[in-house]
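stage 2 :: seqdesign
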């Protein structure tokens, strides 16, 4: 609770002082957002949280229910889903409280303050490395479609790789527990109550500039590069000319659909990563570079809204992740639609009955599809 006490100052007048938690300090800066703004932000984050949790849970359930979808690549996507779920279920509520109702006085304890920062950026690191690995695998699949498939790597190799990503990311996010904590806000301190400790601001700026570059900017650069290279490969693939032969027509139809979906997926990956993670990682670096912000300056309000908008954009980008999963694999899309609308599929997911009206269905039963399609169902 916050209590106010009257103390005489050096001029003989009285000045209102405020105690945050159990200590007393000078009256704090007013929170930059009104109650109305806090309500709006709460509604937005709650809706995005619900969408993100639902999308990732559906992806996990769909893969878990269909054995033929449990490839190594899809197990890799399941790890990414778990990371997004942890971020949404744990970090979103804590971030919301920190930025709204708990801005002036974080009352959830020192441990939860530090825990929030470690888990939030730990899962962000994990997601970043997962997306980079995904783009590299897509490039390998399309550049060497007959030598790289979903079974190229053993289950044990994949598990070791995923565990390494998780442990390494959480280990490098652990220093946030040292830099962050509960701090009493004063008339010259516009920072949220749960934030970087005042005496560690400069050190954290150095840490964030280095580690965030490793986990966000360098991966982002290679994500764009590998996505562009993969798109170039797809654009160079020439579909067979129209032919009266139904096999050639089916192959032509399938290649166009597959390449279009893959290109759209790669564009969406790049857009979501750049718009979601670059602003989020740049904000702590920027705000710790100018730690002495006045409560009445425009920089204070700009700083607050950059942080809020950057996090909302991140949540939107994570809500689009399940869409990206389904863009890359026809069987995943079919299984997801079947799960959502509870449709009774006449044929099992992964196998399609040949009909005269479906050239793509015919092509899916050809040996070429069994080799090449399985390799692109990442």
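stage 2 :: out
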């Amino acid at each position: 609770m916050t209590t106010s006490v009257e103390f005489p100052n050096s001029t003989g007048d009285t000045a209102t002082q405020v105690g945050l938690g159990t200590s007393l300090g000078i009256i704090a800066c007013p929170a930059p957002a009104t109650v109305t703004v806090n309500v709006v932000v709460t509604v937005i984050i709650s809706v995005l949280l619900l969408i993100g949790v639902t999308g990732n849970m559906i992806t996990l359930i769909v893969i878990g229910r269909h054995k033929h979808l449990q490839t190594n690549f899809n197990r890799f996507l399941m790890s990414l889903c778990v990371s997004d779920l942890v971020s949404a279920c744990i970090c979103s509520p804590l971030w919301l409280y920190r930025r709204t109702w708990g801005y002036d006085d974080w009352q959830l304890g020192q441990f939860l303050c530090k825990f929030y920062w470690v888990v939030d950026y730990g899962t962000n690191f994990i997601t970043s490395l997962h997306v980079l690995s995904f783009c590299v695998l897509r490039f390998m699949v399309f550049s060497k479609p007959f030598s790289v498939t979903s079974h190229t790597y053993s289950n044990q190799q994949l598990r070791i790789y995923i565990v390494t990503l998780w442990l390494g990311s959480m280990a490098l996010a652990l220093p946030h527990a040292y830099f962050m904590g509960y701090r009493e806000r004063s008339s010259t301190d516009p920072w949220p109550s749960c934030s970087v400790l005042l005496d560690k601001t400069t050190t954290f700026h150095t840490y964030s500039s280095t580690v965030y570059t490793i986990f966000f900017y360098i991966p982002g650069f290679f994500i764009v590069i590998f996505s562009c290279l993969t798109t170039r490969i797809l654009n160079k693939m020439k579909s067979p000319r129209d032919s009266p032969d139904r096999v050639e027509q089916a192959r032509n139809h399938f290649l166009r659909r597959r390449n279009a979906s893959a290109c759209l997926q790669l564009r969406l990956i790049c857009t979501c990563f750049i718009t979601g993670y670059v602003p989020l990682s740049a904000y702590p670096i920027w705000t710790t570079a100018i730690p002495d912000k006045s409560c009445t300056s425009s920089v204070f309000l700009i700083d607050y809204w950059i942080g809020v908008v950057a996090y909302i954009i991140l949540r939107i980008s994570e809500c689009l992740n399940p869409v990206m999963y389904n863009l890359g694999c026809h069987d995943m899309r079919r299984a997801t639609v079947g799960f959502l609308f509870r449709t009774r599929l006449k044929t099992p997911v992964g196998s399609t009955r040949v009909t005269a009206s479906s050239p793509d269905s015919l092509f899916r039963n050809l040996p070429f599809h069994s080799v090449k399609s399985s390799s692109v169902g990442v």
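stage 3 :: structure notes
- The beta strands are 2-8, 14-20, 25-26, 180-182, 194-196.
- Residues 246-289 form the longest helix (44 residues).
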